[in-house]
Structures are given as structure tokens and as C-alpha cells.
Amino acid sequence: MTELLRPLRALVAVALALASASICADGSGIDTVYHPYVQPLERDLEIRLTHADDGGAVDGQTWRIGYGQSLTERLFAEVYVIGQNRHGGDLRLEGYEFEALWQLTEQGEFAADWAVLGEFERARHGDSQSGSVMLIGERQWGRLVGTVNAAVGYEWGADVGDEPETRLTLQGRYRHSPRLEPAVEFFAAEKLLALGPALLGTERIGPGRRLRWELGLAAGLDCDSPPLSARGTLEYEF
After folding, report:
1. What angle do CA 83, 47, 160 make, to 5 degrees?
2. CA distance 60 to 153
3. What is the DSSP string of 186-235?
């Protein structure tokens, strides 16, 4: 039992260290939860939405529309266009993002499965960009699944103050069925400590075609966090 719990203890230690020192530059830390798996020959179209009401820098909606595909059996790349609707204004194209996910271990090879995600984001207008590296870990206990996303990065440019970023996401979900998986999620970043429920599901719509969806709410745990944030993802795999 001690050997089985050792990877979990390591994940918790990383989570607590990042939560205590979280300094994400833009204060936005609620987003999709990444998993450490690449499917060979997979392609997808994805729409992601995050929303927060706090009257501050993260108030409003952020949309990401992306296309991705596996480049090898262990490498998956995706590009996004980013739109924002801040403080009730019009939706505007604000930037672009590139992601590359590298699966480090075979599923079930070790007590936990691991991957690394690299991200680069650039603003459409002005001089602002950021890059980050995320460690992704996941472990299963029967129908229970625990996932950690721990990211460190840096933001730079003439329009922003050069500074490091950290972001932490923890998810625990119950695999009730492929169509419905209830979950609990925790998010930590600068001016953000949030916890809330989520629902995930997958619908098979043909040979090699699936539609994945996620819906989540997160309530702020301190006075600096948005009182309530929401996120949603719709992904078509083919």
C-alpha cells in the first residue's frame, strides 16, 4: 500500500507547493483539465469557453477555437484562435495559441500516467506573449480517477510586465459511464483559489468519431477570487 500511495503523495506535494506560491500574471487560472494521453491518428475540432464575473481583469468571457491532430503515437499538437468579451463588450479576436502534448509513459506502465504540455500564446495586437510548460499526471483507483495539471511559465513584452506564471488544477472524477462522469475540480493561480463541480461525457457518433463535452462551475474560496466562474468544452474527434 505504501508503494501505491507514493506517487499520490508526490502529486499532493507539488500541488501544495504551487498553490502556496501561485503567481499567474493575468489572474486567469480556470480552464480545461488536460489528460496525459495521445491517440494515434487522432484529429479534433474544439471549442472552449471560460466565464467569470468579478469586475476585474478576468471579468467576461474567453473563447478558444482550435484544431489539433496527433503527429506521432506520443505527440499531439493543436492551434487556437482566442476571442474575448471583457466587461460586457463585443467579442474580439485577441490572440493565438499553440500547444504540443508529449505523452511520456504508456497507459498503465507505472502507478501514474505522465505527459508534458508546452504552450505558446501571442496577442494579436501589441507586444505581449507567454510560454509555459505543464506537467500532467493521472492515476486511477477503480472507477475513481485523479488528475493534476501543474504549469510554470513566463509572460513578456512591451505591453505587459515581464513576470513568471504558475497555474495548478486538480480534478477527481468518478467514471460512472462514458456518457456521464461527475467530477470535483480545484484551481489555483494569482488572485484565484476556486473549487467546484463538473460533469464530463463522451458520445460515440460513428466509427472513430466521438463528441466530448465538459461543463464546470467553480466558486471562489477567498475574497480575491471571482465569486463564481464557469467553463465549458465541446470537442469533436475524428
Report:
1. 35
2. 24
3. EEEETTEEEEEEEEEEEEEEETTEEEEEEEEEEEESSTTS-SEEEEEEEE
* Other beta carbons less than 10 A from residue 191's beta carbon: 21
Do 97 and 79 meet the contact criterion of CB atoms below 8 Å apart?
yes
CB 227 within 8 A of CB 220: yes
* Reported confidence tier of residue 130, pLDDT bands at 50, 70, 90: very high
Q: Report pLDDT digits (tens) over 45-67.
A: 999 999 987 655 556 899 999 99
DSSP one-letter code for 26: T
| Beta carbons within 10 angstroms of residue 212's beta carbon | 16
Q: Which residue did the predictor score with more confidence, 24 or 155?
A: 155
Reported as a single tens digit per residue, the pLDDT across 169-207 is 999 999 999 999 999 999 999 889 999 999 999 999 989
Number of residues assigned to the chain: 238
Q: Which amino acid is at 141?
A: W
Q: How many CB atoms lie within 10 A of CB 44?
A: 18
Write the CB contacts of 142 (distance below 8 Å, at least 6 apart in sequence): none
